[in-house]
Each structure stands twice: as C-alpha cells, then as structure tokens.
Design brief:
The protein has helices spanning 3-21, 30-54, 62-76. With 77 residues, the protein is mainly α. Helix 2 (30-54) packs antiparallel against helix 3.
Amino acid sequence: MNEYEASLVIRSGAEQLSAASSDPRSEEGYAAVKANISVALERLAEALANFEASSRAPNRSIGWVQDLRRVADDLGE
C-alpha cells in the first residue's frame, strides 16, 4: 500500500466515524473511541512530519503537526 492508498483508507474511516457519530446508539465505548482517535491523530502527525522531512520545502506544516499532537494528547487524557 502506498501513501495515497493509505490516505484513502484514512479518509474512508473518517467518513464512517462521522456517519456513526451523527446517530450514536449509546455512549458505550466512548472512552475507547477517544483513545483510538488520539492514536490515529498521533500517527497522522508522524506521517505529516515524515512527509515534511522529505520535502524540498520543509516546515510548511510544522504547526499542523504540533496541533495534531496537542489534540491527540487532549483526547488521551
């Protein structure tokens, strides 16, 4: 799987999560959902940082990486 294909999986998962959250069946598992989103955001930040490191114009999205990690940390608390 390449980066583009992986990004499609992420997008699809986000769309599924959005659809599921628009009609929540219960709060059961909410802590687990937050934990999973936290891990996903941390991995997205890591991927973005990797892309930036190999870019000809590094540091374009350093603020985004920091923001993603901050949100991941907040969700993980």
